[in-house]
UniProtKB/TrEMBL annotation:
Recorded family membership: Belongs to the G-protein coupled receptor 1 family.
Residue stretches spanning the membrane: 23-47, 59-76, 96-118, 138-156, 195-217, 238-258, 270-290
Name of the protein this chain belongs to: Olfactory receptor
Main location, first listed in the record: membrane
Stretches assigned to coiled coil: none
Gene behind the chain: OR14J1
Keyword entries, A-Z: Cell membrane, G-protein coupled receptor, Membrane, Olfaction, Receptor, Sensory transduction, Transducer, Transmembrane, Transmembrane helix
Length: 321
């Protein structure tokens, strides 16, 4: 056990004090992290290399994969290292950076999912105006707005959260610096500003959720009027994976952040934190690739021997120049 009396950091309790369970947790998290890393890097690579996928939908999907890759890298590697070293200590600086990037990337993910739902709405409900509305310039501005919104949210949360004095022991019953758990360490009646910031963030997330719901209500009402069964299947194959990702991520995060805090640590806290920090970045590449014929075709093309030989010859020619 780390002595925190002479240190300014925090102690992350993680999943267990038992050494065998700590090693098992580290191995499981390592496998999950490598799967998420390879899956998201593969999607980014496929979309970048295949010119058939240079459309707004896949442009946003590439940024979602990059967000997922960064998002899972904020918490999981630190947790793996702590479990392997049997040391849950995290310094104040590391905790500040973790909170900032976690909130910023989570907010950006909600924003990009909202943009993706709008993209699907325009493509299905206003197909004649799609290229005009979702032009490359508009797509770039949307992505810039997504990253800026995430950065502002992360900076605001981090500034307010770490300006609140702490009265309890600096022990966090989580595997990362989780804001709801950290609020339990604050002095009584001293976290009004953080509640105000959390209320603003929650309201923004709720507006995004309403926008997504309205987009899909319009989408499904339009799809049901399509006479061709093949056409309906094609639309559902692109929309349902996105809807599943949105529902899973927002419901898990909403349950954790909106439910009343408890004084005693709970296994439910750890379970739901995994649901919105670890599982979505790992499952997103599988969901989007398995349900998408264009992605599967592009993957086969990229992994084919002919394509690989062409890429190899192109790289050699570049080096000769």
């Amino acid at each position: 056990m780390v002595n925190l009396t002479s240190k300014s950091g925090f102690l992350l309790m993680g999943f267990s004090d038992d050494r065998k369970f700590q090693v098992l947790h580290a191995l499981l998290f390592l496998v999950i992290y490598l799967l998420a890393l390879m899956g998201n890097l593969l999607i980014i690579t496929i979309i970048t290399l295949d010119h058939h996928l240079h459309s707004p939908m896949y442009y946003f999907l590439k940024h979602l994969s990059f967000l997922d890759l960064c998002f899972i890298s904020v918490t999981v590697p630190q947790s793996i290292a702590n479990s392997l070293m049997d040391n849950g200590y995290i310094s104040l600086g590391q905790c500040i950076l973790q909170v900032f990037f976690f909130i910023a990337l989570a907010s950006s993910e909600v924003a990009i999912l909202t943009v993706m739902s709008y993209d699907r709405y325009v493509a299905i409900c206003q197909p004649l105006h799609y290229e005009t509305i979702m032009n490359p310039s508009a797509c770039r501005r949307a992505v810039i707005a997504v990253w800026m919104a995430g950065g502002i949210s992360g900076l605001t949360h981090t500034t307010v959260n770490f300006s609140i004095p702490l009265c309890g022991e600096r022990v966090i019953h989580q595997f990362f610096c989780d804001v709801p758990q950290m609020l339990k360490l604050t002095c009584s009646y001293e976290f009004v500003n953080e509640i105000a910031v959390a209320a603003f963030t929650t309201s923004t997330a709720f507006i995004c959720l309403i926008s997504i719901v309205l987009s899909y209500v319009r989408i499904f009402s339009t799809v049901l009027r399509i006479p061709s069964a093949e056409g309906r299947t094609k639309v559902f194959s692109t929309c349902l994976p996105h809807l599943f990702v949105v529902s899973f991520f927002l419901s898990a995060a909403g349950f954790e952040f909106l439910r009343p805090p408890s004084d005693s640590p709970s296994a439910v806290d750890l379970m739901f934190s995994i649901f919105y920090t670890v599982i979505p970045p790992t499952l997103n590449p599988i969901i989007y690739s398995l349900r998408n014929k264009a992605m599967k075709a592009a993957l086969k093309k990229v992994l084919s021997k002919e394509e690989f030989s062409q890429r190899k010859m192109y790289v050699k020619a570049m080096f000769k120049l």
